[in-house]
């Protein structure tokens, strides 16, 4: 038993899990508002991180300016995607919408590889202090900041959905589109807004991961790791998404620990969440917090 | 396969209504079409033949996915994993048990179908996006299994295999392998067309159209959803086995998620719920990267090429074109090439009086 390693991995799991939670939250946002399962969520991270990287290295902008421009770009990106690709597909069967987002996913992944190459590229250093010691564990500064950012985004979501006018309109649309429409909510606007917010929030996560690990197409795998998280938490629950993200983060790190200590199978880190996903789907497909869909004839 | 039905051709029995080839001309057209294809190895070069063979085995697997997605309304994002399973099973059966390759191909199909049934059993409870996510997980789990199971797949190094032989005649060149693929394509497509007019086939369509009504009419939902998964896997397995003995080498990396998405793309581009559409979709998906490459080669050396680095990034371009094709078809032609084909036929039927 290597207790330090276990602690370190638990901490990693919490931090990565919080990031998964943020991505899962933005995934759930789109699903709740517009009933679209977005298989291109990971590409939001990818595009956001590359665009930020491009601003910082090619244009030599300071971090805050580059980051701000990235957020503006991602807002437009989300809006355009929704209006151009997803809007014509409203009312089509689930399979078509899923396929359209999958198509978007491969399109943008290939486009990013084409423009920026296949190799991981590091961000210019942002923090002067590389590592901080917390309770005797070495933690990268970026990680701590990312945890802070994740918590901030979660709090922001909480405020947005309980107090702001747009957030309430979004919840109303998620509850019942026709009722929302009759109360003066513009449903197309809500759809577009949900995509824009989702793209922006995901890109923040993308930039954080990019700063830690460098930017590469591996980022889009976060979009796939989101599925275990959201299924665990329940597809239409924001709190569930956060919790599911943290659990998946912890799960994969603990699986890694068990693997490295006893099993030595290798690759458990990657695959454990998917086993969990299948098991959850069999036992409790609506997740921990999801609403159970009752069908009437 | 809707052929041109002459006016005044009344169907007087259910049998006549469900026949695959409604008129004599459609039967003749089919025979002539197959005969024409049989002369292809004499007329075409090796490159064109290899494209046709690719269309053949991918078309078989795409047809399987179409039975699942287009006819039963269940989605699967793990079809390439089953395709790979068929390829590895066939190679393994031949090498370890000494089964002749000709027998390995259908056996691989059956083994894949059985494993597909195992995966399909939980899928019977799920539908729509839950099933999509579950099969996505199945794709990663199977991929992980392929990389891990060295006894079965040869691990990272991959697995070599051999060409099929029949009574001492080896299908080891493109010219001969083409006939083998053609034979399987005909068997599998006629089989699927037949399935769709049987009770089981119509039950699958009923499950797709309204599963609650279907259940009320006495169709066992779990049974037919599982069955559809099994049939899809059977087709994937046979397609995969044909792939393995054509390339003579199977590697773990080939059967990734992108390949699965390409299968879905074939089904959507060809037309959901259309038997011949699957073949058209496969042809489209095989030709698309080739056409992209021709385009890039035509531009080679020009200013556009130098500005965009077309030559070096042709593989990314191909992926992009696949993604774009899926999206464009979904938006502009959701019923796929099969519908376009019907429209073209209808146009010529009335020519020159069609508007």
TrEMBL record, chain A:
The chain crosses the membrane at residues 9-30, 36-56, 63-85, 97-120, 141-161, 192-215, 227-251, 271-289. The keyword Kinase does not apply. Its main location: membrane. It is found in: Cell membrane. GO terms for biological process: amino acid transport. GO terms for cellular component: plasma membrane. It is a multi-pass membrane protein. GO terms for molecular function: transmembrane transporter activity. Keywords: Amino-acid transport, Cell membrane, Membrane, Transmembrane, Transmembrane helix, Transport. Pfam families: BPD_transp_2. Belongs to the binding-protein-dependent transport system permease family. LivHM subfamily. This is Amino acid/amide ABC transporter membrane protein 1, HAAT family (TC 3.A.1.4.-). The lineage of its organism: Bacteria, Pseudomonadati, Pseudomonadota, Alphaproteobacteria, Acetobacterales.
From TrEMBL, chain B:
It comes from the Bacteria. It is found in: Cell membrane. The chain crosses the membrane at residues 28-45, 51-69, 76-93, 99-121, 128-147, 177-196, 266-288, 308-332. Pfam families: BPD_transp_2. Keywords: Cell membrane, Membrane, Transmembrane, Transmembrane helix. It is a multi-pass membrane protein. The keyword Transferase does not apply. This is Amino acid/amide ABC transporter membrane protein 2, HAAT family (TC 3.A.1.4.-). The lineage of its organism: Bacteria, Pseudomonadati, Pseudomonadota, Alphaproteobacteria, Acetobacterales.
